[in-house]
Each structure stands twice: as structure tokens, then as C-alpha cells.
Amino acid sequence: MPEYTAPLADMRFVLEHLADLQSVASLPGFDHVEADAVYSVLEESARFMEDLVAPLNRGGDLQGSVRNADGTVTTPDGFVAAYKAYVGAGWGGVVFPAEYGGGGFPWLVGIAMQEMLTSANMAFSMCPLLNQGAVDMLLHHASEEHKETYLPKMISGEWTGTMNLTEPQAGSDVGALTTKAVPQDDGTYRITGTKIFISFGEHDLSENIIHLVLARTPSAPPGTKGISCFIVPKYLLDDDGSLGARNDVTCVGIEHKMGIKASPTCVLSYGDRGEGAVGFLIGEENAGMRYMFTMMNNARLSVGVEGLGLAERAFQMAVTYAKERKQGRVPGYPAGHQSAIVEHPDVRRMLLTQRAGIEALRGVIYLNAAALDRASHGADEAARAAGAELADLLTPVSKGWGTDLGVELTSLALQVFGGMGYIEETGVAQHVRDARIAPIYEGTNGIQAIDLVGRKLPMRGGAAVGDHLDRMAALDADLAAAGADLASIREALADGVAALRSVTDWLLANGLANPLDALAGATPYLRQFSMVTGGWVMALQALAATALLAGATPADRAFLEGKVLTARFYCEQLLPQAAGLGPAVTATNRDLAAAVF
Ligand SMILES: Cc1cc2nc3c(=O)[nH]c(=O)nc-3n(C[C@H](O)[C@H](O)[C@H](O)COP(=O)(O)OP(=O)(O)OC[C@H]3O[C@@H](n4cnc5c(N)ncnc54)[C@H](O)[C@@H]3O)c2cc1C
Hints:
Number of helices: 23
Mean pLDDT: 97
Structural class: alpha+beta
Low-confidence stretches: none
Radius of gyration: 24 Å
Helix content: 55-70%
Distance between the termini: 51 Å
Strand content: 5-15%
Bound molecules: flavin-adenine dinucleotide
């Protein structure tokens, strides 16, 4: 029995019928992408993740990455070979432009591959993920010379990238960072300071590491307006592009963490040797935060995928265990019979709750990725603007709800195991521990909620969210036409959208005038917004499956009926909880402000 089996049929269903891969692949610039070829690539990627990456997950957790006395970091057994194979197969470059050696595939395809990589081994996946963020930044903002110097090797994965934002006093408040960058006569900068929590800041998987470092120049204004972004390679390059002198950046420690133990989380010191590490400015001085924002949607979506990937992996384990473990007797069986726990209604509730959450989340995340593709490759300005707006709205949902569900659903999977889940040898506990970081990094989920209320809700004076509500409500006609089978889905979605519309109106009317009230309601609003958006996705799923059932083979019928059933369960039993969050959204800041701690 493999440790992880990529859910290719489920992924394909979403790609084909919800995210409309066919139409994404027909966008300008994706002419070489054939939908059928995409499914072959995904199958190949699935085999790679199942056979090579997933088996390293548990060993990586036990062994962890280790910092040696000389400041080098050794990753767990098997990681170097697996990473070499990953680079050799070209998996890291699939979504990046062909001119720098990438595959030029849509982000939608990359996200599906990322789901499998994360399910297989989240700690391992962090290295390609951070590299992807760094590549994205360079693609958008670096000079042509820097792109030609760094991108081919980073896109191939021979070199890996890091993102250096956090400092001890500057976490969510990035504007508080103090790392210095002093300009030199030769056009370079000298970087001094300490960065903490830098994922894969040092490791043995690649021959060079390209750090992207946020720092302040001497004349920089305070706060986020005074941040610049620099390329600081671990090894400087000689004129012929070969690796030259070691730059002045040192890993002075790695953190002992609750999870993702194989991912080295480094304290990096810049300038220990004296004059500072050599850095190269990206774009203009003081524009670093603006540059970060252009890649933020992609990076946040990728972290949302971590919630999905781990929930899926833990769910697979829970199903297997529930079929093997025998306890008690389900009513209707003779005395002395022992039932597999999968037969108990309460265990089935836990399993179906996991499946429904995973399917809703996969739908939201893949739609989010498709919106990013439309934003960058849409045929005209209006199409690109519509894609960007939907991506802006869905990103806090993918990141915030996705990673919260990652924690909740892996925990529910552990619950299915009973006491054995709490025992490390079973393996499911690792997924709960690994999942816990995702609501914290790449903007805590509190910051995601504030982003939704403070930046996304005011878009076009509330009309962007209004359009999303209308889009969800517009499904009513199709659901009505689908008849009695989907009646309860129709009713639940209509109720959910109406409740969300009501609190949205309240926030628009009160939030702008009383920002503390809006901030106080932000987290329950994000949850409600996400659950209703998940309901819309489940309704789309039910409609697509119902339409396909008409001409389905007996083998496909079970799969499609399962899709309708899961959508119905979500809408009848989970979605109604969304309306219950309304009072928390509109409660105002009164009691939060008055509470004494
Ligand atoms: C394993 C791991 C890997 C990481 N990898 C990287 C990396 O590669 N590169 C990198 O630069 N950083 C990385 N980080 C850092 C990570 O991004 C930060 O931990 C995160 O941004 C939160 O900052 P903080 O830890 O200082 O928490 P704080 O900012 O101190 O937040 C503490 C709490 O206060 C809340 N809070 C803070 N400010 C506000 C506000 N304005 N409004 C409302 N609530 C607020 C937060 O939501 C949170 O609940 C990593 C961290 C970890 C643990």
C-alpha cells in the first residue's frame, strides 16, 4: 500500500469542470499547452511524488535538518538524491517562461502539481516553494541582466531562492525591519543585519542559494516606504558565471520546531566578516514592499495549497485505518459482531467532513489559480482586470481558510485513529504538526482577514465583493433547473449568500467609519465569506456531476454520484454554520476593547 496516492481523478474533475483548464489553456501565450498533455504530465508527476518524495516524509521528520559546526546544514537522508531527481525531471520550472528554460504552463497546472508535492512531503516542498517565490519576484522586477544571470539556474532548480523578510522585531510589521544596505561606488550594496526564520536559508540540496533580502538604505524613509529588495547570492559569481567567492552571509542557527522538521528554518547573519555581504538592488530603492505585493497572491495561494495537500494526505490515512480498525457493533448486527469503525455513523461523519472540506478547498484553490492565469494572460484588459479582481478576492480565502482547514481536517483525521493517532509511529500526528505553521507564515491568518476587510472589501466601493455575491446567487437558476436532487443545495446556497450579503452591507456601512469595529469582525467575516464561497464551489461541482451523469458509464456513475453526495453534505450540514458567524461579524469592538487581560 503506497503511503500517498495522488487523487488524480478528483484533481482532473476540478481542472476540467470547475476551473475550466480547457479555456485557460486557450489563453494567449499558452498555445503550446494541450489539456490532454497536461493530464499526462500530472500522471507522471504523481508517480514521481508517490515513489520518490512521499517515502522520505517520515524519515525527514525523525531526522530533521541539522546545522553543522561550520555553519553548513545537512538535510535528512535521501533529500539530496530526491532533489537532484526533481531538478533532473524539470518539475520546478513547469510554470515559468520558456525563454529562461521553463515550461510556460499555466499557474493552474503548477498548483495541481504543488498539491501533490505538498501531500507527498511538505518539508521537502518548502525548498521549491520558496524558490518559486524568488523566481516570481525576479521575473517581475529584476533587470534583464539579473534575469539572465540568475533565472535559468533558479528555474531549473540548480540554484534555489529564499525570501528574507523577518527579523526579531519585524514579523507581521515588516516595516520595522532594520537590516542595512549601504551603496558602494561600483553600484553594489553592502548588507548587514540579522534575518530570522528563513526557510531553506542554508542547505545541501543546491550548489548556490540566491537570497532575496529586504533592507534599508541610509536615506530610506521609515516604515514600509523605505524598504528595498536585494539579491544576495551565497556564492558570488565570477565574470564567466561560475561560482566565485563565498559571500558574507552565515547560517548561525536553525530552529527546533513543532513540525516541518526537515525544512531548515535559519537565522542568517549578514556581514559577520566586517564590511557586509555584497547585494545587488532589484529595481528601484524604496520599492521593495510594492514588489513584494506583486508576488504575494501567488505565494499566499501556494501556502493555501499546503492546507489542502496535508488534509488530503491525512484523510487517505484515516480512511485506510477506519476500514481496518474494529471496535463496537453497529446496530443491526448480531451480538458478538465487531464492526470496522468506518461503519459507525460518527466516524463516517468525520470522514465525510474531511472529504467535503478538501473538495471545497480544492475547488476554491484551483479557481483562484485559474483567475491568476486570466489576470496575467487574459485576451484583453477587461479580462485581465476581471481575473485579477477574482484572484484578489479568493487569495485570503485560499490562504486563510485553506490553512485553517489544513489544521482542522488533519486533526479530524487524527481523531479517526483514536489513541493511536496521538502516537507518533502511526504517522498521522506529523501531518497535524506540519499543518500548524501554515496559518502563521506568509501573513498570519489574522492578517489575511484584515486584508479581506481592509483592502478587498473596499475595492470599487464594495462592488467587487458585490459582484462575487451576485455570481454566487446567479447559480440559483441552474440549481432550480437541475430539479429536486439539488433542491437542498439550492436552498442552502441562497441562505448562505443572503446572510453573507447582509454582514457585507453592515461592514460597508459601518466599517469605513469605525475601522476598529471592522477589524474586530474580520476573522469571522473571512470564515463566513470562505464557507459560502466553498458552498458555491460545491454547487458548481454538483451541477457539473449531475450534467455528466446523464451519459455516464456505470464505472463513472459511482464517482459522479459521490461528487453530488459530498456537495449535498457540505451544503446541508456544513454551510448553514456560516450564517451563525453573522453576530460575531457585527458585534463591534465593544467587548473586545473592554475585556481585561
Ligand atoms: C517555520 C517558519 C518558516 C518561516 N519562513 C520564513 C521565510 O522563509 N522568510 C521570512 O521572511 N519569514 C519566514 N517566517 C516568518 C513568518 O513569516 C512570521 O513568523 C510571520 O510573518 C508572523 O510574524 P511573527 O512571528 O513576528 O508574529 P507577530 O507579527 O508577532 O504576530 C503575533 C500575533 O499577533 C497578530 N498580529 C500582529 N500584527 C497584527 C496586526 N497589525 N493586526 C492584528 N493582529 C496582528 C498576528 O496575527 C499573530 O497572531 C517563517 C516562520 C516560521 C515559524
